[in-house]
What we know:
By secondary structure, the protein is of the alpha+beta class. Helices cover about 35% and strands about 30% of the residues. It has a single domain (about 5-150), classed as Jelly Rolls, CATH 2.60.120. The chain has helices at about 5-10, 20-30, 110-120, 120-145, and strands at about 30-35, 40-45, 50, 50-55, 60-65, 70-75, 80-85, 90-95, 95-100, 105-110. Helix 3 (about 110-120) packs across helix 4 (about 120-145).
Amino acid sequence: MALSDDIQLLAQVPLFQGLDSDQLRLIAFGAERRNIQKGQALFREHSPAECAFVVSRGHFDLYVENRAGELEFRDRAGPGTLLSELALVTMVERKFTAIASDEGEVVRIPRTLFHRLLEEYPQVASLLESRIRQNIVELALAATRMAGRFT
């Protein structure tokens, strides 16, 4: 795919909405495209996360390990989905396993590239910080709503 296609894809990702074309170009130029075969794991739960992925083509089934050590389906991610966004900011563990449900392609965004974006465009940091903070709040609220299931 062309650099312009990657910029267009990144512009659709909620975390990156509002970034200008130069900022998106920096990410797109430094990112790496990867083809993933059907049934191939993109990453596994509990593995270290040094990058995030944007799904550009295909779908990925997201699983979490249950107490018996078996994978349980949780969700499906399609084009435009950003997986492991917190990995862009700091070292974290993957919270789920992502397996290609069909042939797909992802854009790999390393943490170092994201940090370069923040260094070159400091104004972007406050915008992205508020979006990440809002995502964490929404996650916490969803977990609170589910608390009754676990007591």
